[in-house]
Amino acid sequence: GARLLQVSSGALGTAATAAAAAGASGSSGDGGVEADPSACPSNRFPAPGVLVNVNTLEAFKEFDRTALVKGAAGRLWDDITSGAAERAPWLLGRFAMLAHADLKKWRFYHWLAAPCFALEHPAQLLASRAVEEASDCGVDAAALADAVAEWRAAHTEAMRDGADGGGLGACGLIRGEDGSWARVSLAEAGEALRDGNDASNGRLLVAAFDPCEEPGVASWPVRNLLTLAGARWAPEGGSARMRLLCVREARGRMCAATSLVMDLEVPHVPTDGPMPRLGRAWERNAKGKAAPRVADLGAIMDPVRLAEQAADLNLKLMRWRVLPELDTEALQRTRCLLLGAGTLGCAVARGLLAWGVRHVTLTDCARVSYSNPVRQSLYNFEDCKNGGRPKAEAAAEALSKIFPGARPCAHELYIPMPGHDVGETGGAEANAALASAAKLRNLIEEHDAVFVLTDTRESRWLPTLLCSAMGRPMFNTALGFDSYVVMRHGVAAGCAQRSAPSGDDAAQRNAALASSAGRAMADGTTRLGCYFCNDVVAPLDSTKYRTLDQQCTVTRPGLAPIAGALAVEMLVAMVHHPEGAAAPASGGASGLAAEERDARSPLGALPHQLRGFLGSLQQLPVAGAAYDCCTACSDKVVAAYQAAPEEFLLRAFNEPAYLEELTGLAELQRQATEIDCDWDAESGSGSGDDW
Fold first, then answer.
1. How far apart are the C-alpha atoms of 439 and 441, rounded to whole Å?
2. How far is residue 144's CA from residue 254's CA, in Å, rounded to a whole number?
């Protein structure tokens, strides 16, 4: 007929229910998956079908829809002729759906096909009326509504128990002498129709849930039920008369005003020949043209939520197509502390956001100056006015504007440094230095990884000491004019297992970054060194008597983005390494083979340090062992700090030679100066190589 298919919101809901249940029974053979009725929610009737989701809009437009709907129709015809649909009426609602999801724009394209057959001799409608007007044929609307409600309740209970509820979608109802209705299966209703007894006297109703909402029009499952009646119940060469109840509900109960009672003459449908011709199956739009539907959710969604989904999508695509081992959840949970919000701090913060890190804390004690915005990507001209905004505050605000899903924090923090005299114990300057050190320790304790991105060498000493004492992974980045070093510090021997901050669920924290001495040193390998392990002198005040060119960061502008990106990549590789912070340097002790892929890390090599030279376009992976006389991470220094933290720090700040004496560097220097290298002129007349 001209109106073979009427798709309503109810019909689409049926299809969506089946699509949501898809995947429970495996592949359909058409590139999609079929629904399992046991997965259908309560108070719903399943419709089996094939959902094909394509990756591009071009593939959606060019898809072979004819083959798709013919495949669904072929399975429907097999269900009818084999009797499967008689035993399981829910199979009469077969459909096919083609879909494409534009996840960046949140536009969803979907096109529903509901296969029905254009029979050579279709069923003839003899009479049709609403249930509330069917009293002339012995139908009591209230009693019938009770019978349908009982049918629905039985179905819902059976679905909850994983069993058949006496017919999913269609059944038979036989009116008793007292006006009540008894429910029978659809197969039993077919037997009664063939016998003709209950059907001829009007006592039998074939009932079907009808998702169509338009008056006088049946949905495609009901039309397929008529095809089944002609193929299974009508005598060959003849026809069968049946009374059909199209159940339409309102608020979970049969609506007597819209539900229909139809008297039909159903001719025989031959089953020994080819499948009947298909009618128009693909959904039509409001203008009556075959066209897909488009759901544009982008305009109604929360922009913040859209931004989060879009940012996460980039990482999910990376995981789907290239790196299935990528742990985006671990990256989101990682809490990063950035000491320094200058050129390097801005570069590292942006890189962390791109990898999905949500928790970023920035610290700095400076204010934004007019020279900053052109080199430091988180600041603008307005931040420089009126003396400049605090850098950490302005950077955190900029991160929130760039990505509202980020949770940045800002702290104005001055890092006390060795060689920078803070006065006697109890003085205001000494108390301020100790308070800053305590605040820094608390911040390190609250985070999973620490990036040291400060300007001076001595400002890196206290963070290095604290990370060594607390077992936190630390990433140190420093710049020259055209060179850089990016390194991760080794885990200190003797450090205790890190604990989660108060109120935080340790199971939700990034366990890959947790470290302990036993874990780090279990295989007997040498601990990796820190930024100060190659030094034979203690860090001193490098800020005195600085000229203008020494006060400013004089580096090639492209250097900081390169070094900052490498520091972030080193963190991400460590998060994915099975040994976490205790991971050895890729390529062994020398580090010279770090470019080789490390099979234990899905992101490849995890070096100890990278030294780059922009002038020659070279980059060298280097590994170095921890030095037992190091002024920042050696056991002697960590033990002295843990024994008396405040006393130790004040001596380190005020006494330039203290750290060298404590670690043994002073003795080493004295021994070096005492070596007497005499030249033996007489014996030296030979090769000249004897000293």
1. 5
2. 9
Do 632 and 457 meet the contact criterion of CB atoms below 8 Å apart?
Answer: no
Among candidate residues 682, 639, 678, 642, the one with its CA nearest the CA of residue 662: 639
Phi-psi region of 139 (alpha: psi -120 to 50; beta: other; left: phi over 0): beta
Lowest-confidence segment of 314-323, 389-398, 597-606, 633-642 by average pLDDT? 597-606
Instruction: Fill in the amino acid letter for 482.
Output: D
Contact 546, 554 (CB under 8 A): no
pLDDT digit string, tens, across residues 50-97: 999 999 999 999 999 999 999 999 999 999 999 999 988 989 999 999
CA distance 432 to 419: 16
Question: Which helix (H) or strand (E) covers residue 21, if one does?
Answer: none
Report pLDDT digits (tens) over 220-273: 899 999 999 999 999 988 999 999 999 998 887 889 999 999 999 999 999 988
End-to-end CA distance of the chain: 111
Residue whose token pair is 């671990």: 330
- Residues 591 and 624: their CA atoms lie apart, in Å, by 8
Tell me the one-letter amino acid at 407: R
- CA-atom Rg of the chain in angstroms: 39
CA atoms within 13 A on the CB side of 656: 9
**For every residue of 507-570, which 3-state class applies, written as one string?**
HHCCHHHCCCHHHHHCCCCCCECCCCCCCCCCCCCCCCCCCHHHHCCCCCCCHHHHHHHHHHHH
Distance CA(254)–CA(75), nearest Å, equals 31
**Exposed/middle/buried for residue 214 (C-beta within 10 Å: 0-12, 13-18, 19+):** exposed
d(CA 96, CA 72): 6
Query: In b/e form, how buried is each residue of 260-289, taking b as 16+ CB within 10 angstroms?
Result: bbbbbebbbbeeeeeebebbbbbbeeeeee
Q: Compute the distance between CA of residue 327 and CA of residue 513 in angstroms, rounded to an integer.
A: 13
User: What sign does the CA torsion over 423, 427, 430, 432 have?
Assistant: negative
40 catalytic per annotation? no
Note whether 359 and 449 are within 8 A (CB): no
Q: Which of 184, 167, 162 is nearest to 175 (CA)?
A: 184
Active-site residue, from 336, 495, 552, 630: 552
Instruction: Specify the residue for token string 């390494």.
Output: 577
